[in-house]
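Journal club prep, notes for RB
We'll compare a predicted complex against what the paper describes. Inputs for the zinc ion case:
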Amino acid sequence: MKATPPLDRIRARTIRDENGCWVYTGHLDPAGYGRISVLGADSKRRGKFTHRVTYEALVGPIPPSLHIDHLCRNRACCNPKHLEPVTPLVNTRRSPISTGSVNAAKTRCSNGHDFSPENTRIVVNRRGRAERVCKACVRIRSAKYRRSLANRERRAAPSKAVQP
Ligand SMILES: [Zn+2]
Ligand SMILES: [Zn+2]
């Protein structure tokens, strides 16, 4: 007999409130987070947080170094849109987080470059949130900056230009 996938079990016990939260109405731990027991690949059952289950099922794997922050502040909420992986170290600018898991739904940067592992760097922004940075965009920006600097120097010293 096939077990019901954890995601379906969570959905069956979830109600949507006026904020768009998927409020889990099953078992909550003392802190107010939804808990569900999940059968692992090793056939052992273990307790998991419901919001981690929905995030991993609908968005992607969560690196072990990150925890999930509830943007809506409703700990029983399992709506992946209200969840964001963050580093526990809020003031760290950069941390060695594996790529491909942050904002996993987005596959391209705002300029259309691929968020491939080679083209992506994960940085931690001032709010302590992991953020993907497109390396191609950084290259383009720094090339533009160098060009504008060179132009400024040329304009600043036209008399020194060597005549042929
Ligand atoms: Zn929510
Ligand atoms: Zn880009």
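Talking point for the session: The longest helix spans residues 135-156.
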